Task: structure prediction
Amino acid sequence: MKVFSRIVDVQNELFAYRKQAKTVGLVPTMGALHEGHASLVRRSVAENDVTVVSVFVNPTQFNDKNDLRNYPRTLDADCALLSECGADIVFAPSVEEMYPQPDNRYFEFPPVSTVMEGAHRPGHFNGVCQVVSRLFYIVRPDNAYFGEKDWQQIAVIKAMVSSLGLRVNIVECPIIRDEDGLARSSRNTLLSPDERLIAPEIYKVLSESISYSATHTVADTHDFVVEKINSVDGLEVEYFSIVDGDTLQDVLSWDESEHVVGCITVYCGKTPIRLIDHIKYK
Ligand code: PAF
Result:
């Protein structure tokens, strides 16, 4: 496995593969890698001739300076895990390398980018699109791998790919959970032991809401989830939206869509740590 920090070095390395018509898989990450990332990398390794993993904490997608400052950075451990997973190339650039000048492009893909995370984290998806489009231009992957944990992010990236006419296949990979149900996230390492104990309640309540939803309306199911999670000391729901899984627009009845997903963001603990998760109703 080779580790590069300069764009030109990654491109030179990939040039050799491309001359032999090898397929390239890209797994974009912000590091602090866990089993969720490892599953994406293993899948890319299985499906492509060469796998590139980018490790870059992208400042333009953080709308909160403290969140950016506190975001875990663990490049050595990340490289050890990536090598074990069979990655070929790690691209870990500096901020100056990725953004030699400020990126003045503005991405907005309504309706998918403006609701939920788009409404609560202004500028977040603009930053995600800035960095992911740059990575796509640098690596020119055939396939790019993203985790379904960030359900809305996948919808926004697909809209961006279609709008920019990029030739990359977006591969959606299932969420990976700890044994107690907590969705794997780099932010979990920031939870104190007490916070880690209550965080699995989020998925527990989401799971319970599936049977509840069979005999209740969308509005009742929404309130059931929000009230149950808020009743746990240390958890506070920022939003819970029951939406069409593709358009991400609210549904008012279960019959309105064939593909209904509940997307939630919860603040956990005193810091607090922002955790996201989702549940598929249909
Ligand atoms: O999902 C993430 O970790 C980030 O949003 C991504 C896609 C790597 C862009 O910085």
Q: What stands out?
A: Residues 186-280 form a domain with the Pantoate--beta-alanine Ligase; Chain: A,domain 2 fold (CATH 3.30.1300.10). Residues 28-30, 58, 61, 128, 131-132, 150, 153 surround pantoate (CB under 6 Å).
